[in-house]
Amino acid sequence: xxxxxxxxxxxxxxxxxxxxxxxxxxxxxxxxxxxxxxxxxxxxxxxxxxxxxxxxxxxxxxxxxxxxxxxxxxxxxxxxxxxxxxxxxxxxxxxxxxxxxxxxxxxxxxxxxxxxxxxxxxxxxxxxxxxxxxxxxxxxxxxxxxxxxxxxxxxxxxxxxxxxxxxxxxxxxxxxxxxxxxxxxxxxxxxxxxxxxxxxxxxxxxxxxxxxxxxxxxxxxxxxxxxxxxxxxxxxxxxxxxxxxxxxxxxxxxxxxxxxxxxxxxxxxxxxxxxxxxxxxxxxxxxxxxxxxxxxxxxxxxxxxxxxxxxxxxxxxxxxxxxxxxxxxxxxxxxxxxxxxxxxxxxxxxxxxxx
Length: 355
Ligand code: COI
Known about the structure:
This protein has helices at residues 61-65, 88-102, 109-122, 198-202, 205-213, 259-270, 282-291, 328-341, and strands at residues 6-7, 31-38, 42-50, 68-70, 73-77, 83-86, 134-143, 155-165, 176-181, 218-222, 230-233, 236-242, 245-248, 274-277, 294-301, 305-314, 317-320, 352-354. By secondary structure, it is of the alpha+beta class. The chain folds into two domains: 6-166, Aminotransferase class 4, branched-chain amino acid transferase, N-terminal domain (D-amino Acid Aminotransferase, Chain A, domain 1, 2-Layer Sandwich); 176-341, D-amino Acid Aminotransferase, Chain A, domain 2, CATH 3.20.10.10. Strands 1, 2, 3, 4, 5, 6, 7, 8 and 18 form a nine-stranded mixed β-sheet that branches. The site of 2-OXO-4-methylpentanoic acid (COI) has 6 residues, from loops.
C-alpha cells in the first residue's frame, strides 16, 4: 500500500442494526476517515477516527457558498467472506472531474481508493449480507476555511462515512411511479449537472416534493432549454427501451456520468443489444407507449441500483408501462449487476476490487 493512515478505534462500539429492517442511509458505522487540505501543503494527515460530529467555524465557506462535492459507492460481502468494492476508480476519476468544476483541489486517485479500503476494512463487520443490502460509502469534500468573500477556499476536508443500507426505495426492487417535471429543471448547459455536488440535489427538492404529492417516487427531468428531451430520473440515469433500441441521454454536460449507467451500457453491449446514447423527446416516449413499442423504462444509480418504472405521470395523465410490472431487461440487469457486486456471478468485466 502506498498510503498509511493513523487509526484511532472507538472505545464505545455501537450495536449493529437489524439487517432485516435496514433503511437507506439512516445508520452509520463506528469509524470515519478524515483528511485535510491546505494550500502549499496539499492533502495531508489522513486518519481514521471514531464516527462523530465535525467542528465547523460558522463562517466556513461551505455553509455559505456550497463549495463541496460528494460521491457514492458500495461495499459488498461475498458468500466466502471477502469484501468487494464496485469500480471505485471510476468514483475517484469522477471526484476529480467534479473538483475541477468546483475549484476544489484534485486528489490522487490511488489515495482516494486507499482511504476507502482502509476505513471499510476497519468497519468490515458492519457490511450486511442479506439479499438487497450493502455498505454504502459516502466520500465528500468541503471547504472549511472561514471567510465571507466569494472565492475558492484554501482549506478543505475530505471525509468518508459508511452506512449499512437496504434498498433505496422502501418497496425494494419493484416498479416506481415517475412524475415528468416541466416547470423546474435539474441542470442547464454550462452548469454543474455533470458534477456530483450537493447544490444539484438541493435544487431538485422542490420538484421531488411535487412528485411525492402526486403519489410518485421520483421526477423525470427534462432538458433546461426546450423542456422536451428526457434527461435523468431523480438521483439516477434513465434508460428507455423502445422497440429494439435502448436509449439513454448522452453525456453532454447536464447528465451525471453514472458508474451504474456505464456498467449497464457495457453489459447490454456484451449481450449484443443496441444501446444509443442520444437525445430522446418525451413526446416520442409517450407516442411509443401509445403504439405499444415502449417496452421498458428503468433508472440506474449506485443507491437505486436498477429501478424499474411502472408509470409516468405527464400533463395530468397516467401512462402505464408493462401494466405497472417490472420488465425482463431491468430484472436481468439487476440480477447480473448485484450478482457481480456480491461475488455470486464471476466478474469477467474486472469491475470489483477486493478490500
Ligand atoms: C448514489 O446513487 O450514490 C447517489 O449519490 C444518489 C444519492 C443522492 C442517494
